[in-house]
Amino acid sequence: MPFERARDRDEDKDRPENFWKGLVRDAIVAVVIVAVILGAMYLYAGVWPPLVVVESSSMQHSDDVSSLGVIDTGDMVFQQAASTRESIVTYVEGRASGYATYGDYGDVIIFNKAGSATPIIHRAIMYISLHANGTADVGDVLQLPLSDWDAVNANDQPTQVPFFLKSLTIRNMGFDHDITLTFSFPGGSMTPRVGFVTMGDNNLVHACRSFRTGCTSGYDLISTITRVQDIEGRARGEIPWIGLIKLVVQPTSSCCASWGVGAPKNSWDALLVTLLFLIALPFILEYAGRGWTKYVSPRLPKVRWPWTRKKAAHPKTELSSDPAEGDGEPPTEESSEP
Is the dihedral of CA 124, 128, 131, 135 positive or negative? Predict the structure, then answer.
């Protein structure tokens, strides 16, 4: 009919404009959603970026198998601001109180270190004060039972007064609690320094593999202990294996020159399954929606909400192309031809 054809032509004219308006609207909504999510993450973290990708295996609890709740190569870790000494619980403090994160006692921190362009993520073991003669005060250790540690003072005498120490031995360390580790303080003339002794969980196990009851290495260099101002944040939660995508696109010296290299095999397998699921998700949602509409929704009872109003029935009006016709019946297709 002429009326319908004219209406179709008007709709065709409006479609390009409506398409671009809809596209712009969707883009604005997407930007707002992303901004809200990032803003919420920043408010929680108090530091930017709130997520960091783990590039090495120094915190793993196995060389060839990754685990949820442990920091493995390719994990994305949330970090939260830690601007004071009190905001970080050391391994020694956590062992005394029972506080643990990522499979062992104490907090894991992300910090900058001289000579490393990339921040390091290791566990904070203890907080010490280094003196000008190279000895150290380790007051944290007083929270442990006396049977758990030994120390040697500046006069090479055994002591359990943790001040001006030359070395400190702590028993039952490591995530398997089977390593006796001796920390040796630098000695000699040096600039006094206060900060955290740090260590990678996996580094300790590798360094002490042959002599677990008399180990003297595996921790980070004590002469450059991590100061509070060097700390970017403390680790809080993780997104497993997703960071491998970034490491494949931008490989580092430790990971990942190609797919399947540089991280545990089960992490790569889990990443592949995740990517396939994300690709299939739109189709799954579409078919699930169709199934709901066809089979479930018709069988659900109708719910009459108290705030809805019953719509009044409107008489059906029909359009006629000929105003002279008073019976209200639309002309047939043949009669509408010119």
Answer: negative
**Is the per-residue pLDDT at 239 higher than 70?**
yes
Residue 193 pairs with which residues in a beta bridge? 130
The Cα–Cα gap between 152 and 169 comes to: 9
Segment 99-113 mean pLDDT: 95
d(CA 122, CA 205): 14
Q: Across 16-20, 71-75, 300-304, which has the greatest mean pLDDT?
A: 71-75
Tell me the whole-structure pTM to 2 decimals: 0.77
Helices assigned H by DSSP within the chain: 2-45, 91-97, 201-207, 244-249, 265-291
Measured distance CA(172)–CA(146) in Å, rounded: 13
Residue 187 in contact with residue 133, Cβ under 8 Å?
A: yes
State how far the Cα of 286 lies from the Cα of 318, in Å rounded to an integer.
37
Q: For the chain, first and last CA: distance in Å? A: 10
The residue whose two tokens read 């992490």 is 267
CA gap 77, 243 in Å, rounded: 9
Q: What is the pLDDT of residue 9?
A: 53
